């Protein structure tokens, strides 16, 4: 790649690599996209759109990409029988993963409120019939990856890789090899996959863990951290879908998702077993 741009956004590190030089205005626009997204969806800010909903409920208008996110989250919600839900923010906060990162539970795990009881998500925006903490972490980072890559493609960049700390999307010829980080040992890998044009996302329960058995991947039906799956990787056409499927695979069997989405996957369970889709049979180290 001829140019590389690294920065911090939405609480993680980013790197954008392009085959042609990034203009100053293009770099500025990437940062602007991140700021706009954070201002809408961050539950760790007091001035975000999500924070306003948490305080008083009501409606929050969203840009066109908000409709795409809502449709994906609703599909994942239904396919996991409510396991994936943007209403998981309240259970997360109660377990200590709150706006102040207290990491101190304030009550026992409890299910998230039911989507249809509280939330309406349309093409125009979201409406909460009562205050609640929305959390779009199931797919939001992936969508921001997509927004950045699609912006650069529209600007004429033909070779692009957007990497948000392991959630990535590439538009370029050939393939690159990407290691699958071992969830129990970040210095090693359980395998490697080839990434051509498309997205590879990962989710691991060790990335945001605190206390005994507490981490950020919750089952919205119970409010408890998932303890059977420890890591997932998904290859898909776009990063929002790959990111969302990574979360969903903590909560349901891949077969439940395969009828709706095209993807390949690797799953690692807490007992050390691995499971993978047939095209990735050679991706794991023996």
Walk me through what this model shows.
The protein is of the alpha+beta class. The chain contains eight helices and 17 strands. It has an eight-stranded antiparallel β-sheet with strand order 1-2-6-7-10-15-16-17, covered by helices on one side. A three-stranded antiparallel β-sheet has the order 3-5-4. It is globular, with a radius of gyration of 18 Å. The two termini are 32 Å apart. The mean pLDDT is 92.
Question: TL;DR of this structure?
Answer:
The protein has helices at 24-41, 49-56, 64-79, 89-94, 115-118, 140-154, 239-248, 254-258; strands spanning 3-9, 12-18, 58-61, 119-121, 125-128, 160-164, 167-171, 176-182, 185-195, 198-204, 209-210, 214-215, 218-219, 224-225, 229-236, 264-269, 274-276. The protein is of the alpha+beta class.
Strand order of the largest sheet: 1-2-6-7-10-15-16-17
Strand percent estimate: 25-35%
- Which runs of at least 5 residues are low in confidence (pLDDT < 50)? none
Count the DSSP helices.
Answer: 8
Instruction: Profile the largest sheet.
Output: 8 strands, antiparallel
| Class of secondary structure makeup | alpha+beta
CA gyration radius, whole angstroms: 18 Å
Gap between N and C termini: 32 Å
Q: SSE order in H/E notation?
A: EEHHEHHHEEHEEEEEEEEEEHHEE
Give a topology summary.
Elements: E1 3-9, E2 12-18, H1 24-41, H2 49-56, E3 58-61, H3 64-79, H4 89-94, H5 115-118, E4 119-121, E5 125-128, H6 140-154, E6 160-164, E7 167-171, E8 176-182, E9 185-195, E10 198-204, E11 209-210, E12 214-215, E13 218-219, E14 224-225, E15 229-236, H7 239-248, H8 254-258, E16 264-269, E17 274-276
Antiparallel strand pairs: 1-2, 2-6, 3-5, 4-5, 6-7, 7-10, 8-9, 10-15, 11-12, 13-14, 15-16, 16-17
């Amino acid at each position: 790649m001829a140019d590389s741009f690294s920065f911090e956004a939405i609480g993680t590190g980013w790197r954008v690599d392009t085959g042609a030089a990034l203009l100053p205005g293009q770099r500025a626009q990437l940062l602007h996209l991140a700021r706009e997204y954070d201002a809408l969806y961050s539950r760790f800010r007091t001035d975000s759109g999500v924070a306003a909903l948490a305080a008083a409920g009501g409606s929050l208008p969203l840009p066109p990409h908000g409709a795409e996110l809502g449709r994906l989250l609703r599909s994942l919600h239904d396919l996991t029988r409510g396991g994936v839900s943007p209403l998981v923010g309240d259970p997360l906060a109660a377990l200590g993963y709150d706006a102040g990162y207290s990491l101190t539970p304030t009550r026992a795990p409890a299910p998230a409120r039911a989507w249809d009881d509280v939330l309406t998500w349309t093409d125009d925006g979201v409406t909460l019939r009562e205050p609640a903490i929305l959390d779009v972490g199931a797919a939001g980072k992936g969508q921001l990856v997509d927004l950045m890559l699609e912006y650069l493609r529209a600007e004429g960049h033909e070779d692009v890789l957007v990497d948000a700390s392991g959630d990535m999307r590439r538009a370029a010829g050939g393939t690159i090899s990407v290691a699958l980080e071992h969830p129990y040992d970040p210095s090693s890998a359980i395998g490697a996959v080839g990434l051509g044009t498309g997205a590879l996302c990962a989710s691991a329960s060790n990335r945001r863990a605190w206390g005994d058995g507490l981490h950020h991947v919750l089952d919205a039906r119970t409010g408890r951290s998932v303890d059977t799956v420890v890591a997932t990787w998904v290859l898909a056409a776009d990063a929002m879908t790959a990111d969302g499927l990574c979360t969903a695979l903590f909560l349901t069997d891949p077969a439940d998702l395969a009828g709706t989405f095209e993807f390949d996957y690797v799953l690692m369970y807490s007992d050390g077993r691995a499971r993978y889709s047939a095209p990735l049979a050679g991706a794991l180290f023996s």
